[in-house]
From TrEMBL:
This is Beta-galactosidase. It catalyses: Hydrolysis of terminal non-reducing beta-D-galactose residues in beta-D-galactosides. Its EC number is 3.2.1.23. Keywords: Glycosidase, Hydrolase, Signal. Residues 1-20 form the signal peptide. It comes from the Eukaryota. It comes from Rhodamnia argentea. Residues 362-417 form the Beta-galactosidase beta-sandwich domain. Belongs to the glycosyl hydrolase 35 family.
Length: 632
């Protein structure tokens, strides 16, 4: 191994040379210990920032804060469905400007891990796949299927070509040192039967044939074919070993917190535990670890996956949703990174040795003949203890690692947080406070009514109840199912004098039921079970009655075998019956009128032109389907 000093100089040269007409090209390979950049092994600390989850104005600051926190690499997925919303029509503007994001990372002197996927999971709508993919005849996602493979290859090659054109691969003097193909396929492969193995072999060959000059990884893929590196995802990855002793131990997703679901708790992962997991990984031979997420950000617009994943993708990450450092997490991890970097020369020069320390304890020593020595002392039990190592006594709190860059002195213990704490306070005003307030006019708010039922020219009639995603192609979250039905008053289900009930069964995710244009009831599923089966008491008139059911999706499924086939919407049955049971009218196979989307969406709400918004005389308070806008 060459001396560390050279690596440092190379780092500076890389930064300076990123856009200098590829004057400096880094050769990235790997061996059993680490990624090797121009002949030199590297310890790399990485963090995920997904470019469309923040604004381009935020990127330089987020990246600088990542650098100040001790990161070497920024990881991002590439999100196919925002780049190709219509087949062969690409969009790389604004928050979707992938090239600009990669260049911004390079300008800060950091490296990039580009996880192309193009299946990404990521709590992203439909796992990142564009909806049009679903409508290609004969297509089967994520298996050995020609139509799917053709599209996956086309998009992957498109992204690789874009990066090459801009000279963004390290092999061209750019910042990208690594790429990922697929995502956690190993978790679901068995469900795809005999199609799985050929698919993953094809994906590996396809990716390597794109000739990026940098290694490819597959995460959670125990059978990743050579030369693809299989990597670990999880809260802890210290016990992970790659599938060949020629590959380094890499951690692509160290979950810094977790996903927020509507109605769920806001997840929290203590800084001490995250630091422990990181130190354990490097202790046990890891050399590349990535925080998923380092900055989670926001699921803007309709990009969130689901169902019921919240708009906030804060993730309890070291940099919060608003771009502020989260303390003490950010500061503590920065201290951990510094301590690990003090060990870097020893870590990279040799393999770990594990002298015995006692039950629930683990010592790891990286020692060379040339006098380098770094050690990690771990207490994986929950009680504090004192250990003797190399004749010296060390106090080890439960669930902690001490890092000794010279095998003698403790640079840091993961359970001892020296970084400052910070508790931000938020000032907010909720809509309910405003609409429930006694004042009749609120100058800050205006509104527009959304008609109940069919109001657009492009409505259509079909017999029976339609599955929602196949009907809307996800062009909107909303689908109206409308019906008019004659009631004589002599229907058997009304005769026993008990309450009439509208029974609606839906694959999800939420619905509002209107009878004779009045809201009769609402019901939502949840992330564990989006399905709905509800009995809504209704008042029916003699003569014509209208039934308008508004079905909503709240983020399309992004995970699981065959998740792309998960349906939504009111697939029935829909019935009128008596609360006492007995006879009923099944409306399911009648002629339903459908409307995709809301009138307000066609008008471009909530942005829309200001002349459309009503401010006087008062805000409607109990009127369902109202668009509200705050002016401040
Ligand atoms: C992983 C997946 C990521 C993300 C994460 C949870 O399994 O690879 O994309 O979904 O879970 O946040």
């Amino acid at each position: 191994m060459a001396a560390r000093g050279k690596g440092f100089l190379l780092g500076i040269a890389l930064v300076a040379g990123v856009f200098a007409a590829s004057s400096l090209c880094a050769n990235v390979t790997y061996d059993h210990r680490a990624l090797v950049v121009d002949g030199e092994r590297r310890v790399l600390v990485s963090g995920s920032i997904h470019y469309p989850r923040s604004t381009p104005e935020m990127w330089p600051d987020l990246i600088q804060k990542s650098k100040d926190g001790g990161l070497d690499v920024i990881e991002t997925y590439v999100f196919w469905n925002i780049h190709e919303p219509v087949r062969n029509q690409y969009d790389f503007e604004g928050r979707k400007d992938l090239v600009k994001f990669v260049k911004t990372v390079a300008e800060a002197g950091l490296l990039v891990h580009l996880r192309i996927g193009p299946y990404v999971c990521a709590e992203w709508n439909y796992g990142g796949f564009p909806l049009w993919l679903h409508f290609i005849p004969g297509i089967q996602f994520r298996t050995n299927n020609e139509p799917f493979k053709t599209e996956m290859q086309r998009f992957t090659a498109k992204i690789v070509d874009m990066m090459k054109q801009e000279k963004l691969y390290a092999s061209q003097g750019g910042p990208i040192i690594l790429s990922q193909i697929e995502n956690e396929y190993g978790n679901v492969a068995s469900a795809y039967g005999s199609g799985a193995k050929p698919y993953i072999n094809w994906a590996a060959t396809m990716a390597t044939s794109l000739d990026t000059g940098v290694p490819w990884v597959m995460c959670q893929q125990g059978d990743a074919p050579d030369p693809i590196i299989n990597t670990c995802n999880g809260f802890y990855c210290d016990q992970f070993t790659p599938n060949s002793n020629t590959k380094p131990k890499m951690w692509t997703e160290n979950w810094s917190g977790w996903v927020i679901y509507f109605g769920g708790a806001v997840p929290y992962r203590p800084a001490e535990d995250l630091a422990f997991a990181v130190a354990r990984f490097f202790q046990r031979g890891g050399t590349f670890q990535n925080y998923y997420m380092y900055h989670g950000g926001t699921n803007f617009g309709r990009t969130t996956g689901g169902p019921f994943i919240a708009t906030s993708y804060d993730y309890d990450a070291p940099i919060d949703e608003y771009g502020l450092v989260r303390q003490p997490k950010w500061g503590h991890l920065r201290d951990v990174h510094k301590a690990i970097k003090l060990c870097e020369d020893a870590l990279l020069a040799t393999d770990p040795a594990y002298p015995s320390l006692g039950p629930n304890l683990e010592a790891t020593v990286y020692k060379t003949d040339t006098g380098l020595c770094a050690a990690f002392l771990a207490n994986v039990g929950t009680s504090d203890t004192t250990v003797t190592f190399n004749g010296k006594s060390y106090q080890l709190p439960g669930w902690s690692v001490s890092i000794l860059p010279d095998c003698k002195n403790v640079a840091l213990n993961t359970a001892k947080v020296n970084s400052m704490s910070m508790i931000p306070t938020f000032v907010y005003e909720s809509l309910s406070e405003v609409v429930d307030s006694s004042s009749t006019v609120n100058a800050d708010w205006s509104w527009i009514n959304e008609p109940v039922g069919i109001s657009k020219d492009d409505s259509f009639v079909k017999p029976g109840l339609l599955e929602q995603i196949n009907t809307t192609a996800d062009s909107s979250d909303y689908l109206w199912y409308s019906l008019s039905t004659d009631i004589t008053g002599e229907e058997p289900f009304l005769e026993d004098g008990s309450q009439a009930v509208l029974r609606v069964e839906s694959l999800g995710h939420a619905l509002h039921a209107f009878v004779n244009k009045k809201l009769a009831g609402s019901k939502a599923g949840n992330s564990d079970n989006p399905k709905i089966a509800v009995d809504i008491p209704v008042t029916l008139l003699t003569g014509k009655n209208t039934i308008d059911l508004l079905s909503l999706t709240v983020g399309l499924q992004n995970y699981g075998a065959f998740y792309d086939k998960t349906g939504a919407g009111i697939t029935g049955p829909v019935k009128l019956k008596s609360s006492a049971g007995g006879s009923m009218i099944d409306l399911s196979s009648q002629q339903w009128t459908y409307q995709i989307g809301l009138q307000g969406e066609d008008k471009g709400l909530p942005s829309g032109s200001s002349s459309m918004w009503i401010t006087k005389p008062s805000l409607p308070k109990t009127q369902p389907l109202t668009w509200y806008k705050k002016h401040k």
